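Ticket #4471: structure output looks truncated?

Reporter: J.K.
Steps to reproduce: submitted the chain below (103 residues) through the standard prediction queue, then opened the result file.
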Amino acid sequence: MADVIKTLNYRFDRLTKIFADGGYRGELTGNVRSFFGWDMEISLRTDKVSNFQVLPKRWIVERTFSWFESYRRLSKDFEFNPDTSEAMIQLAIIKLMLNRINK
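Returned output as attached by the reporter:
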């Protein structure tokens, strides 16, 4: 089970649902439900649609990742230590929030 999900249990008391990409299908969904009692909603796209279609909740994740891409240290996985990667993500979010406050 992912270490990230283990830490969520103690940080967020009101967490009831996790939105995830299709890559997280499988045993993780069952493990999250049995260990923590949380629901995982998997957002899948269909190949049947030929034009662009907005998927529910997926745009939030895609938008956040595009914000991260504007920071050089987050554009690729340069970091050896996961704690450093987490710190870089937190710094990027802090900068984004400060920019919004200053507008």
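Triage note (M.O.): checked the attachment and the full token line is present. The radius of gyration is 16 Å.
Status: closed, working as intended.
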